[in-house]
Amino acid sequence: MQTAESVTAAPQPRLQGYRVGDLAGGAAAAMVVLPQAMAYGVVLFSLMGMSAASGALAGLVGAACLSLVSGFFGGTIGLVSSPTGPALVLFSGAVLAFESAGLAGEKLFAALMVTTVLAGLFQVAIAVSGGGRLIKLIPYPVVVGFTTGAALLMIQSQLKPVFGPLLEASWEAWRWIPFATAVATYLWIAASSKWVSTVPPMVAGLAGGTLVFHILGRTATDPVPVAWVVGVLPDPTSIVAGLSIAGLAQLPVMPVVSAALALAMLASLNTMLASVIADLTTETRHNALRELLAQGVGQTLTGLLGSMGGSATTGATVVAVSAGARRWAGVTAGAVFLLLVLLFGPAGKLLPISVLAGIVIYVAVGMIGADVFEWLRSGRTRTDALVALLVTIVTVAYDLVTAVGAGVVIAIVLFIREQARTSVIHRRSTGAQRHSVRLRSEKERALLEQHGGRIVIYELRGNLFFATADRLFEELLPDLDRPAWIILHLRRVSQVDLTGIKILHQIATRLHAHGGQLLFCEVHHHIGLGADVGRALSRVSQKGTGNRRVLTLIGSDEALEHAENALLTELGSPPAAAHDRVELAATDLCRGMTTEQVSALRSVLSSRTVEAGRTLFAAGEQGDDMYIVVRGEVDMRLQTTQHHYKRLANCGPGTVFGEITLIDPGPRTADAIVVQPTELLVLDRRGLERLQRERPDAAVSLLIALGNMQGHHLRRSDEEIQRLAQW
Questions:
Q1: What is the tally of helices (H) and strands (E) in the chain?
Q2: Chain segment 545-586, per-residue pLDDT in tens
Q3: Shortest CA distance to 536 belongs to which of 572, 584, 488, 582?
Q4: Residue-number span of the structural domain to which 695 is assigned
Q5: Within 13 A of 69's CA, how many CA atoms are on the CB side?
Q6: Shortest CA distance to 359 belongs to which of 680, 104, 37?
Q7: Residues 128 and 50 in one domain
Q8: What is the spatial distance between Cα 164 and Cα 693, in angstroms, rounded to a whole number?
Q9: Which bin fits 363, alpha (ψ -120 to 50), beta or left (φ > 0)?
Q10: The model's pTM
Q11: Three-state DSSP class for residue 615
Q12: What is the CB-side half-sphere exposure of residue 584 using CA atoms within 13 A?
């Protein structure tokens, strides 16, 4: 499943000085946005029964507010904001909903402005709560779906101004001019975007379509109706800031709040997408919190001024940064919009509504996700295509508010579906394939090789929650109905919810009923289980865990060692405890020697007793001796950090360590730490040379035994390297 790229808060944009690129890029972006902003305003305000000139003014003022506030205070380099097509569709749906609730005239206009103000406040809340990250995680097919639906609704909204005059009975008044003008505008934009790079396509379409309209109008036999042009823009002083508090109580609460929340989410999503694209072009990283705060404030100001809201726009932003604009692109674009409002209002009487309709249709066609049809052809992306089509249908059949909600629900369902389809088991291995670092006798190793299948290690990953926990139970079933030791390795588990804990409780109960035991290792506090999993399991059932003996151990090696010791004990060959004494002749080192050879070896050994907690030697120290553990326990450790280490081997009674430096004197490869009071036999290089002189046969037997041990260690090391490489 594809998602919108997530680029989160980073170093805030620096307040760079004003540059020529900011002037050129901001002005170019304003020219791109200008026709769209006016067109969207005309469509929306005409829907409320207001004049086209008022709508054009509302679009320009909205673009000015959004760009200026975002330009001054936003967190994205080069971002330009204005009314957008999806916002137009959402506003249009809200107007229809308000009309259904009985609103008209000033009350309808007030409801729309309150919606815009609330949307701005919701955007501020989204920013403060960190919702910018969540918004960017909406799957890409959902975004394509409601963008395509919004495009179809935009085209539908322009059918009346384009085809309406053609459907009238009177043809002598040249009723086909609006249709011809819209087509000419569309073709002019398409041609200029392909062949002319010096003029923004929208500006070329605006100029070309206007020219065609007036040429056709002069050839008409009757005067062109005044309603076919925008008209002189109202004086900016006519804008009334603020809202009537008394009138707010008469507005329908739920339609206003739902429309405002949908607009806030839609505007935030558009802004985050545009910010990501701006980052790719400027090679910076935006500050999502700061940008959404600025967008929210700008949206609120737009509503208070009775204008049309919107969000950041990708097309204008790309134009701005491509022309060299950086920090002050939005400010420049906003200033251009203000100049147009203040100085060029009379030019509106020359601007045909059909030209703006052609621009809206061109933008809408570009918004349609044609890639959906390609997705349908591939099995891997067919589900994505169906999701996009479903959201499109909801958008067209109902409204954009419902589509946004449906998109969020679909995103959640798809996430859960993908999680449920992905097994949380990364790897399953048995005690015959993987062993602890405790050094074992030859007899113990043979038993573990033969019966190691009763020890099973499951390395888990991802999230263990209601959608994945039951599948884990089903995958563990073959091992639950037999007397086995099951180890659950949780290092790569991110979260365990209450359902997951309950399933783990059932696993422990079923395994215990068949004589097995459940062990946990690598359990971290943040996943929701705590340091003692048995205690966590007891909290989900009044019956508790009883005598199920659920254990939590630090690492996988400790868990394996515990399971191996329990298995060997059950097989009648318990491993030697640290306090047990194993004489030299009973060790694997001397198993192939005669009594005389053992005596000869014993004569060159020295005895040493060491208390617990002492360090026999440290990594890097020079050495030339080998140790045989008669009684006690010694760990071989590799220090990884100042306070952490990796246990390489655990040496109990009857085992040998340090043989490498005996054969090849040099620096030690690990630390030797005495865990329990230990009695040792020590053979150094001089003792080995004396044995070679006095009893060469005993020296040969010793070296053969040491070679066999090294071969076994190398084989185990190779297995461990292969296992680690699979991650």
A1: 27, 15
A2: 444 578 888 888 899 999 999 999 999 999 988 899 999 999
A3: 488
A4: 584-725
A5: 26
A6: 37
A7: yes
A8: 115
A9: alpha
A10: 0.61
A11: strand
A12: 22
